[in-house]
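USER: Write out one fold?

ASSISTANT:
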Amino acid sequence: MSYTELLVNFTGHNMEEFTITGFDQLSHQKLLGFLIFFTYFLVLLGSVTNICIIATDRRLHTPMYILICNLALVDIMYTTSASTTMISVLLAEVKTISYYSCISRMYIYHLGDIEECLALSLMALDRTIAVSSPLRYHSILTNPRIFLLIIASWLIGLGAAVMLAVQAEGLPYCQPIIRYVFCDFPAMVRAACVDPEPYWMLGVILGIWLLGVQFTFVLLSYMKLIYTVLRLPNTESRVQVFNTCISHIIVVSSYFTPKIVVWLLTRIGLTLTRTERNNLQIVATLLPSLINPTVYCLKTKEIRGRLVQILTRKRTIK
């Protein structure tokens, strides 16, 4: 059958399901599946805990905690879209996924990825204003303005992810195989019977926007923040402000570092094997969502104190 005939006879609409084969070369699939399941459980536990604490304590209904709550929601969505597929393949040994389920999970995954970046940008903006203009902070960033910024970020993310989903949905698929560990845009492009090169442009544009524009904004924000902290009059003030901001720096690093590493490796001409790409993708998906709620529970005094209060109260009742 010629390449042209393949394009005519195969489209995304007559493809009923895909088979995930990214884990086929692994010898300890159950162990990896358990680790992913346990990590996913911790992500859900930490994120839901943060959301519940912030939602039920009116004292925490401030811009910073609203942004933390938004990030927790993003973490749940982002991790769920990939983890459920990997857990199904590794533990339940169900390697097939329906066409439209794959498309929808791909959409949710990239929406979560974009929203994670935008949420971190908003949090960097919040901390920079709080440290640079503490007296004007509450007049600049009010709760209504924060909600508007969050809504705007979701609208941007929804629009960007739709473009990827529309392009993937329109591809002609001539092989029902996803050679990676879950459904994302690159995996679906490589499963189509087309030359993949022209389809990378949209992904490159989004990558430049996320790593070039958003990361640069976050980096400049924290450079401004560090500069302001160093100019504070006494050491105690510097330590106090730095301890407040260190959690944000850890969270930002956990999200951007895996992506920058992959980008740098590919830019210097290093070719990664499919297994290496899969490993980096798993780390880049699970690590930030695991670190985020953990950091905010441990490093944020108000959330940590509220959690201790709830646990102590339960023990007293028993």
Q: What stands out?
A: The chain has eleven helices and three strands. Residues 312 and 318 are 10 Å apart (CA to CA).
